[in-house]
User: What shape does this take?
Amino acid sequence: MMFAGIAMLVLLGAGGYLYTRGHGAQAAATPPKPPELFLPLDPAFVVNFQDQDATRYLQVGVTVMTHDPAAVQAMKESDPVIRNALVMLFSSQTYAGLSDITGKQKLQNQALDAVRKVVADKTGKPDVDALYFTSFVMQ
Assistant: This one.
């Protein structure tokens, strides 16, 4: 009886050791996510666009985020191309289209796609995770 109790304790101890060791290996096997890298596209974009009644102005501050340092470098090297794509995109908007949050979110997604395209053309990968409007003024 005593032998069975000792055997049970040894088995429970070995099982606990293997269980904790296995969970530790899983955590170690998952590589940590690289840090977020932010690149402000300075200066802010200022474009005009025609509304029905008047010429309107849009000023947009843009910051992009990636986890890949190569993408940051590609964006820095392609700054004129990115700025051109975004100026064309921003100036094609209408005041009514940007007056609500849905229009702004649609523009944000289109701007992200435009930046990703430039980065993909440069690096072969569209490694831009997000694009943020850090300011947004319509007049």
In short: DSSP finds four helices and three strands in the chain. Residues 2-29 form the longest helix (28 residues). The beta strands are 37-50, 55-66, 130-138. Helices lie at 2-29, 69-77, 79-91, 101-123.
